[in-house]
Amino acid sequence: MEVVFSDGTHEQYEDVPFSEGAQGAIFRSRDRKHVVKLFKAPPNMPPAAVARMVQDRNRQIDAIIGKYNVVGNDPYWEALFAWPLKRAVQPRPGVSSRYVEGMTRLDNYFFGSSYSRLTPEQKGWWIGRLACAIKMARAVARLSTLGLCHSDLSEKNVFVDPLSGTATILDCDSLVIPNEMPAEVLGTPEYMAPELQSGKVREPSVVTDRHALAVLLYRWLLFQHPLLGPKRHSTNAELDDNLALGANALYIEHPTDTSNRPKHLQVTAETLSPRVRDLFRRVFVEGLHNPALRPTADLWEEALSEMMDRVVPCGNPLCEQKFFVAPDVPPMSCPLCKTRFTAFPQLPYLKLRAPRPTRTGGYEYVDENASFQGTPYNRYIVGYPGRPIYNWHVHPNVSLRVGQSGARTDSHNRGVIRYDTNRSEWFLENIALPDLQARVGGADPASGGWSPVPLGSRVALRPNTQLLLGQLNLDRIAYVEMKAV
Ligand SMILES: [Zn+2]
């Protein structure tokens, strides 16, 4: 069939839809590059109401393609979204977007029967899962820069490839634009914020998106729903679900109320970095019934990106996930297959600290992300052969988040951690850290004792080694701790 768009262009689409939902049917273009969703009116809707609905939707789609387009022509953001491209006018009102290929819908990973049918490539590995998670957070953060809410972030609207670590958000044609476009959908129950589920709030918003994102991330990284535990709230199954996700919602890992904790909960948020664990606590404990306390998507993006510096391979060749997060405190073993880590007797942990001016006119080196209780999070780069050091590790003013243009400020390796098997010693190779200096011990960085580590040379990572990664009082210091695993 021929589809005519509001800009006057025509494209050829298949006659039979490849998927059909409540809102309409989705057809693939003959060149397989695009899909078009052609809307259908709800049955029995009076013609005047249909006309109004079409008009509202047209306005919404034009706004999403135009004024509220978070993708632009940037290939980076284009990959993160299947953003609406053109508004269809014939044969029916609708909207086109790119056809997402080579990726798997997220719900396939959440149910045993569909998961078992995935190929090893589709299953990917945990390091790729983390990369996908970073991209989900980044996409939601991107939407919130324009105040947009997706309104239906769920397992059916996210496609992933956990082998290469890519994720794409779909169904962006029903975005909620505050004060302009009301919501058409409330969301998918398992991802709906408690206040939406209970009916206390009637419209999805940026803060309900924050809840949905956190549920997606928890299920994706920890393999279970964060609120669906053994606790029962009613003998009526439907009411029970509604209460468990709504008015009575309770985090399965609540630190003091363990009444919803599954008996054999093996992979918990404790196996992630302390900062990510605390974000889950904030969103599912403090922020669960208090939406204003929910962490924003950019905090997730940052904390998950930092966690990447701690991921190490599992020694078990049969391990399904193949990677895990190195904990602050050994013993180190894979939380999934329980295999002890034995590849090296000890690993260097590089604790990053940034300079902060003191009242007396000097500088102290502090943990930038100390938790709200003031406990340091210990932002570690856990040494592993090939572990890169980037500019955003060196300079506190360089963000590891992706900038507006979709480009990272700098993603070239500045240094790389390696292991010398002959000497049984860890070292950092200086690739492009022109100011790198090292010393052993010493409290006040300004007291000196630093020796330059020239470009192209290497410095041994030993207990109490300090590495001044850039300039004194401007850039970070890495404090080396050797941890027996
Ligand atoms: Zn394992």
Please, could you describe this protein's structure?
- This protein is of the alpha+beta class and 485 residues long.
- The protein folds into three domains: 1-99, Phosphorylase Kinase, domain 1, CATH 3.30.200; 104-343, Orthogonal Bundle (Transferase(Phosphotransferase), domain 1); 344-484, Sandwich (Tumour Suppressor Smad4).
- The chain is built from eleven helices and 23 strands.
- It has helices spanning 47-65, 75-80, 112-116, 120-123, 126-145, 194-197, 206-222, 237-245, 274-286, 297-307, 391-394, and strands spanning 2-5, 10-12, 19-20, 24-28, 34-39, 86-90, 94-98, 104-105, 158-161, 166-169, 311-313, 323-325, 346-357, 363-366, 380-382, 387-389, 415-420, 425-430, 437-440, 451-452, 458-460, 465-468, 477-484.
- It has a seven-stranded antiparallel β-sheet with strand order 2-1-6-7-5-4-3. Strands 13, 14, 15, 19, 20, 22 and 23 form a seven-stranded antiparallel β-sheet that branches. It has a four-stranded antiparallel β-sheet with strand order 16-17-18-21.
- Helix 5 (126-145) runs antiparallel to helix 7 (206-222) and helix 5 runs antiparallel to helix 10.
- Zinc ion (ZN) is lined by residues 314, 316, 319, 334, 336-337, 339.
The largest sheet, given as strand count, sense and whether it forms a barrel, is: 7 strands, antiparallel
CATH-level-2 architecture of the largest domain? Orthogonal Bundle
Instruction: Categorize the overall geometry.
Output: globular
Q: Would you report the number of β strands?
A: 23
CATH fold title of the largest domain: Transferase(Phosphotransferase), domain 1
Q: Percent helix among the residues?
A: 10-25%
First-residue to last-residue Cα separation: 63 Å
The computed structural class is alpha+beta
Bound molecules: zinc ion
Number of helices: 11
Count structural domains: 3
How would you name the CATH homologous superfamily of the largest domain?
Transferase(Phosphotransferase) domain 1
